[in-house]
Design goal:
five-stranded antiparallel β-sheet, four-stranded mixed β-sheet, globular, alpha+beta, 7 helices
Length: about 300
């Protein structure tokens, strides 16, 4: 593994690293090898190494929409952390690295008087993660502002580009769920707006989240996707599941669409609770729930 340390520096390579340190759920077993990478050149070198060493590659963002099993992850776990933001105030076009955190980007845009990303100011993941799942809130989605996405093909190490109409954005989905890819840059376009108006909207969304969401306990946001003809959290609430616990995992008493770690949950507790909720909702309402959280077993 010395080759990895030579490429990235010894501080950026960890062995048997607990994934509980890298997920907002605060659960998950060890990653065999965990690396943080801050530029494309290093990323390509690491992918070359992983292929020659026949290491399975798993890519994560900020771990805020992620549930890793208690068994952990074999092979190489890559966290891409480049955080460049380039803003063209004349054209309102922005290029940002995939590792930029959504709240950081939202604040940078606010300072430049650019509107269109306020909805993501409270989404704790990375920009790459937001693109991957077409993250959204308050009637807006990532697809509304993306022009192109630059990514590295994990198998070939080639840098490729997809434009908005090629990304196949759907509700909480994109083509990247099917590609073996690492998103390294996102090109976006915004609109000029008074900074105070942007700030007010961000503050409004912040208050709404505070009122509705369980921010005082580890969680991974909404566990299930919204149904086509039903509101998932409403059904879970009506089924009397708020506060229902399995081990240290509990359906939030504040928002039935969230599962929280009450302090000593395991990934197995959370997975069992997810399956129990699915079972109850299907038995009561004949509705099938689909998970929004990314699960690595």
């Amino acid at each position: 593994m010395k080759e990895l340390e030579d490429i990235l520096g010894i501080d950026n390579v960890k062995y048997n690293e607990p994934m509980s340190n890298h997920t907002s759920f605060k659960v998950g077993g060890p990653a065999e090898i965990f690396v943080t990478i801050d530029d494309i050149d290093k990323l390509q070198k690491v992918l070359t190494y992983s292929k020659s060493s026949q290491l399975k590659v798993t890519v994560i963002g900020n771990g805020s929409n992620l549930l890793v099993s208690d068994n952990g992850i074999l092979g190489l776990v890559i966290k891409y952390v480049a955080k460049d933001i380039n803003i063209n105030n004349e054209t309102c076009e922005v290029k940002a690295s995939g590792g930029v955190l959504n709240p950081v980007l939202a604040n940078a845009l606010k300072e430049q008087g650019l509107s269109g990303f306020e909805f993501a100011s409270g989404i704790p993941g990375t920009l790459a993660g937001a693109v991957y799942m077409n993250a959204g809130a308050y009637g807006k989605e990532v697809k509304d502002i993306v022009q192109y996405v630059k990514y590295i093909d994990i198998d070939t190490k080639e840098i490729k580009v997809l434009h908005n109409n090629e990304i196949k954005f759907e509700y909480r989905k994109s083509i990247f769920e099917k590609l073996k890819a690492i998103i390294v840059e996102v090109g976006m376009i915004f609109e000029k707006q008074d900074k105070k108006i942007i700030e007010a909207k961000m503050e409004e969304y912040k208050e709404k989240r505070k009122e509705a969401q369980p921010q005082d306990m580890p969680n991974a946001g909404s566990i299930f996707k919204k149904g086509k003809d039903f509101v998932t959290s409403k059904l879970i609430d009506e089924a009397g599941l708020k506060g229902y616990k399995i081990g240290g995992a509990m359906v939030s008493e504040k928002h039935a669409g969230f599962i929280v770690n009450t302090g000593n949950a395991t990934a197995e507790d959370i997975l069992n609770l997810i399956e129990y909720i699915k079972k109850v909702i299907y038995e009561k309402y004949e509705k099938k729930l689909e998970t929004e959280v990314r699960i690595i077993k």
